[in-house]
């Protein structure tokens, strides 16, 4: 399991969907990994096969806790995933999958996230599965591939899915649309209280966890906690009734890790009881339906031969003020519909 990464697929290696499905259902990590490679593929035939596998796995999915973990580079995400993931496996008897979303990840270079070399214990644990971010070339986008991977991991019996992303941009919205719980990792006393984390990301957090508490004196950590609590108070209350928590931990020294799980369980209990857990999952499914349709329609439009031919000239006319962007768009859409 240690070195299973993005297994290259040769055409003759492709098997029927049922082969992958049976393997995944049996908890075979190598086959799970191959199926994820299929769904990340840029080739349409691989993707069609992946879709068949996803459909077969769907009835066996949904039974995990999906947790998003974000924070700026260096804050300690990998270290936390290592200690938290090990805690879940060793103390809570869980099977943990770690996925990542890094929209900037390059096709060849892999990802800075979900990096198994930084997760030494987890990467050799039979109850863990670590998968770096899909490449930015994945059909339908990086986030969609991760969303689909969740289904396959759940069918393979993973009951906690940790989704790591770097806390600086659009990818958090994507992660938020696929997780049940959102954890934001921060530092105490790193100057600017918000540390480049956008307000929108703070607003999504179910817990703000101040990491590296071992490195700071207690007063500083306490002050940072208070500051974050104050900042959270400025946001409108969550519709699911959850009041975001602020805690501290040391991912490196395994301090405060159990507390994180306790909070996640409390959140799960509350949201299950008041129905918002399942409502959120349904809303997310609807979101992905609409996302996928709009991506596909857009791609159909831009791949259309007539549009490809007309677009450069019409773009030029728009730039030069010969025609308004709206009329130009309508003209192209009319051509597309013909
Ligand atoms: P990421 O980029 O957010 O994934 O951050 P890493 O997990 O790679 O951590 C960045 C650096 O911070 C590494 O050198 C870690 O050893 C260190 N680090 C992570 N967590 C802690 C912590 O709780 N305490 C201290 N003192 N250092 C930590």
Tell me about this structure.
The protein has 13 helices and seven strands. With 338 residues, the protein is of the alpha/beta class. It has a seven-stranded parallel sheet, with helices on both faces. Helix 1 crosses helix 3 and helix 2 runs antiparallel to helix 6. Bound molecules: guanosine-5'-diphosphate. The site of guanosine-5'-diphosphate has 16 residues, from helix 4.
Summarize the structure.
It contains 13 helices and 7 strands. It is α/β, with parallel strands linked by helices. The N terminus is likely disordered.
N-to-C series of helices and strands:
HHHEHEHEHEHEHEHEHHHH
- Supply Rg: 22 Å
Strand content: 5-15%
Mean pLDDT: 86
Task: Kindly state the percentage of residues in helix.
Answer: 40-55%
Give the ligands present.
guanosine-5'-diphosphate
Uncertain parts: 1-5, 107-111
Overall number of strands: 7
Number of helices: 13
Q: Report the structural category.
A: alpha/beta
- Please state the overall shape, judged from the principal axes of the Cα atoms: globular
Oligomer: single chain
Distance between the termini: 52 Å
Task: Profile the largest sheet.
Answer: 7 strands, parallel
Strands in their spatial order, largest beta sheet? 3-2-4-1-5-6-7
Describe the secondary-structure layout.
Elements: H1 17-25, H2 29-40, H3 44-57, E1 65-71, H4 77-92, E2 96-101, H5 120-123, E3 128-130, H6 142-155, E4 160-166, H7 171-176, E5 181-187, H8 199-204, E6 207-211, H9 218-233, E7 245-248, H10 257-273, H11 276-303, H12 305-319, H13 325-337
Helix pairs in contact: 1-3, 2-3, 2-6, 4-10, 12-13
The structure holds guanosine-5'-diphosphate.
Guanosine-5'-diphosphate binds at residues 71, 73-79, 118, 211-212, 214-215, 250-252.
């Amino acid at each position: 399991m240690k070195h299973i990464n993005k297994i290259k697929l040769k055409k003759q290696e492709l098997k029927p969907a049922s082969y992958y499905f049976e393997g995944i259902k049996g908890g075979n990590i190598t086959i799970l990994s191959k199926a994820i490679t299929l769904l990340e593929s840029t080739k349409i035939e691989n993707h069609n096969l992946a879709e068949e596998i996803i459909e077969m796995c769907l009835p066996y999915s949904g039974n995990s806790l999906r947790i998003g973990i974000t924070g700026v580079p260096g804050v300690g995400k990998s270290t936390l995933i290592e200690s938290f993931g090990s805690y879940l496996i060793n103390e809570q008897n869980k099977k943990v999958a770690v996925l990542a979303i890094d929209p900037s990840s390059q096709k060849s270079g892999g990802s800075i996230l979900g990096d198994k070399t930084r997760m030494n214990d987890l990467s050799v644990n039979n109850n863990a599965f670590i998968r770096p971010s899909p490449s930015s070339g994945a059909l339908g986008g990086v986030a969609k591939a991760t969303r689909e991977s969740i289904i396959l991991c759940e069918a393979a019996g993973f009951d906690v899915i940790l989704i790591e992303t770097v806390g600086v941009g659009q990818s958090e919205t994507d992660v938020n649309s696929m997780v049940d719980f959102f954890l934001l990792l921060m530092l105490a006393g790193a100057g600017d209280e918000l540390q480049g984390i956008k307000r929108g990301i703070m607003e999504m957090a179910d817990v703000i966890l101040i990491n590296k508490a071992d490195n700071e004196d207690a007063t500083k950590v306490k002050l940072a906690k208070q500051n974050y609590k104050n900042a959270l108070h400025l946001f409108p209350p969550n519709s699911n009734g959850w009041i975001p928590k602020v805690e501290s931990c040391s991912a490196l020294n395994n301090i405060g890790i159990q507390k994180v799980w306790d909070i996640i369980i409390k959140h799960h209990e509350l949201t299950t009881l008041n129905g918002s857990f399942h409502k959120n999952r349904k809303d997310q499914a609807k979101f992905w339906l609409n996302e996928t349709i709009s991506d596909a329609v857009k791609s159909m439009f831009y791949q259309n031969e007539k549009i490809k031919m007309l677009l450069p000239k019409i773009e030029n006319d728009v730039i030069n003020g010969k025609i308004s962007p709206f009329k130009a768009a309508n003209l192209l859409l009319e051509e597309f519909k013909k």
